[in-house]
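wait is this the right file?? whatever heres the structure
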């Protein structure tokens, strides 16, 4: 049983790592991107609201994302644990997640942050853009996304660091090695909590 979040800059392989880590701990990986797509596809009220922002390349507002997540956490498979990917992105969302979990008598076990040098992330994303034919993923656009991530997430990382639940794992190198390091870091954190309980 583990309640986790994973953070990482664009190009850090966060989505892939989320799937592997969630599989190891037998918990659902809940990605905000997937939530948005599901709601839009099912033409829900929240989906329509999210779509209006996504169509203009803007971030979906906190209240919409939070409402979607609240519904998702009410589903049975998330009762014993979860791995959140893409939430919380802001300190407002940190507070909203706290409130959701407190309401359920739960707490977050660990926040995992993948790190990698900007030049490596840039190279990875330019390579991916080329492979997938994404002509809009130019160097300046990618650079801007990395800056936005850094600006937005610093306060979130600081919040979890202050609570002593932030785990940092080097996101450079082989995918399997990163997965192994991440799982080991989480297991150490969970074992420490069990001892302290």
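ok assuming it is, sequence goes like this
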């Amino acid at each position: 049983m583990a309640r986790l979040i994973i953070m990482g800059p664009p190009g850090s392989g966060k989505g892939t790592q989320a799937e592997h880590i969630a599989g190891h701990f037998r918990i659902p990986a809940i990605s905000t991107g997937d939530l948005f797509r599901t709601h839009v596809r099912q033409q829900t009220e929240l989906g329509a609201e999210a779509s209006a922002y996504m169509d203009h390349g803007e971030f979906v507002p906190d209240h919409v994302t939070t409402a979607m997540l609240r519904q998702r956490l009410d589903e049975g498979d998330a009762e014993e644990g979860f791995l959140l990917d893409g939430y919380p992105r802001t300190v407002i969302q940190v507070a909203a997640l706290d409130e959701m979990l407190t309401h359920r008598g739960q707490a977050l076990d660990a926040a995992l942050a993948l790190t990698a040098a900007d030049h490596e992330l840039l190279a990875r994303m330019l390579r991916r853009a080329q492979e997938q034919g994404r002509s809009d993923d130019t160097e300046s656009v990618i650079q801007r996304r990395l800056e936005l991530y850094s600006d937005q997430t610093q306060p979130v990382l600081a919040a979890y660091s202050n609570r002593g639940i932030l785990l940092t794992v080097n996101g450079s190198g082989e995918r399997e090695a990163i997965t192994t390091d991440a799982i080991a870091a989480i297991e150490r954190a969970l074992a420490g909590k069990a001892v302290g309980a």
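DSSP finds eight helices and five strands in the chain. so i think its the right one actually
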